[in-house]
């Protein structure tokens, strides 16, 4: 069945049934593989895209629910978006798997709340799971992109005390 979707500002015709999850249409039909499959049950956030500016889980959203909404994916940011630049500056990604979903949720936050508090960041990012645990760097990158963070990432704390050396065995 032919359906036209507005993806990253372009009307694109896809051949998929109405119950096909948006994630699979993006990845398999349109070749937009930046959006990731994580859990498949809308719990991890790896598949997050924007629909009319709001974050949605594309793994559980059938294309019939999208209708005429404007869909934005990580590819639509172009690679030079302030959040993408902040992500690199703050060394956010480790494995990188969750990053497109994290960034898309952060884009939605900054579009509605240009100077978010820590509480607003936590609320907006709730449900976007990072298995590597880079949550502090994610928060720093969001603040930086919003113009709220220092110019440089905070230094990594190093223990100034040397570790004790056990005495040699006699």
Helix/strand/pairing category? alpha+beta
Shape: elongated
SSE pattern, N- to C-terminal: EEHEEHEHHHH
- Measured distance between first and last alpha carbons: 80 Å
Number of helices: 6
Commentary on this structure:
With 170 residues, this protein is an alpha+beta fold. It is 31% helix and 14% strand. The protein has helices at residues 22-29, 63-66, 82-89, 99-112, 118-125, 135-145; strands at residues 2-7, 10-15, 48-51, 54-57, 70-72. The protein has a five-stranded mixed β-sheet with strand order 2-1-5-3-4, with helices on both faces. Helix 3 packs across helix 6. The radius of gyration is 20 Å and the shape is elongated. The model has no long low-confidence stretch (mean pLDDT 92).
How would the blueprint of this fold be written?
Layout: E1 2-7, E2 10-15, H1 22-29, E3 48-51, E4 54-57, H2 63-66, E5 70-72, H3 82-89, H4 99-112, H5 118-125, H6 135-145
Parallel strand pairs: 1-5
Antiparallel strand pairs: 1-2, 3-4, 3-5
Provide a brief overview of the structure.
This protein is of the alpha+beta class. Helix content is 31%, strand content 14%.
Task: Give keywords.
170 residues; alpha+beta; 5-stranded mixed β-sheet; 6 helices; elongated
């Amino acid at each position: 069945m032919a359906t036209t979707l507005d993806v990253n500002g372009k009307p694109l015709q896809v051949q998929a049934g109405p119950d096909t999850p948006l994630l699979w249409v993006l990845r398999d039909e349109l070749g937009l593989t930046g959006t990731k499959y994580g859990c498949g049950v809308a719990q991890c956030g790896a598949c997050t895209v924007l629909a009319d500016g709001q974050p949605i889980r594309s793994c559980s959203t059938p294309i019939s629910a999208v209708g005429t909404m404007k869909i934005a994916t990580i590819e639509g940011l172009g690679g030079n978006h302030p959040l993408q630049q902040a992500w690199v500056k703050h060394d956010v990604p480790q494995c990188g798997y969750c990053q497109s979903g994290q960034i898309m949720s952060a884009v939605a936050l900054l579009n509605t709340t240009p100077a978010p508090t820590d509480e607003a960041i936590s609320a907006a990012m709730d449900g976007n799971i990072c298995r590597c645990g880079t949550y502090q760097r994610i928060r720093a990158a969001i603040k930086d992109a919003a113009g709220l963070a220092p110019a440089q990432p905070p230094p990594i704390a190093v223990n100034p005390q040397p570790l004790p050396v056990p005495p040699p065995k006699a």
